[in-house]
Amino acid sequence: MQKANTRFATLTRMKDAYDVQHLRHLAGEIITNVRELSRAGLTPATSSNFSLRLDERHAAITVSGRDKGKLTEADIMVVDFHGNPVGSEHCPSAETLLHTHLYHRFPEIGCVLHTHSQVQTIASRLYASDGHIRLEGYELLKAFAGNTTHEAAIDVPVFANTQDMVQLAAQVDESLDRQTMWGYLIDGHGLYAWGRNMGEARRHLEAFEFLLSCELELRRLQR
Ligand SMILES: [Zn+2]
How far is residue 132 from each of residues 20, 56, 135, 182, 206, measured CA to CA in Å? Predict the structure, then answer.
């Protein structure tokens, strides 16, 4: 059995301590899953970022600017729920706050995935002026946790792109006050999707990707 002082990161402030073994386990999970998402074309040109809840105060998240198809353990860092790095000199992505505010608000959320696929980017451009994309009548709506029928409709918000993450997180919070949401788009940018664990977050991400591509194709055919 590991001694407590080797298993837990030795940090100056006790509230910053986290379980290093658990972090390594989560890093492995992120690396394996993100490699697959990268191969599927969801993370072009080092974009996108991915995180898992580490404990009730911390998340493990990808370091900014790394090739997401070639991640190693060194490319995963710890942040607190205010988006500050913990025990690392690496720079977290500017968008870290968009992950951590979800962990802070919903104790049940365990994973946040942010991608930049072509489908997501084009859909965000086309529907930005409406402020949302309505997905309705699709069997695959049942992929979203809590939906039990295709007779449902969900409105995926499309927020204006900005470098002000505090403002964007506040807009996301306002939307979450009004509806259950498993994701949103940012104009000209990409998608955020989340779930209680990696499996559920990936299911939501894949459902969004598929349904958005259906909407784009229908639009093209209906011209
Ligand atoms: Zn991004």
Answer: 40, 32, 10, 14, 18
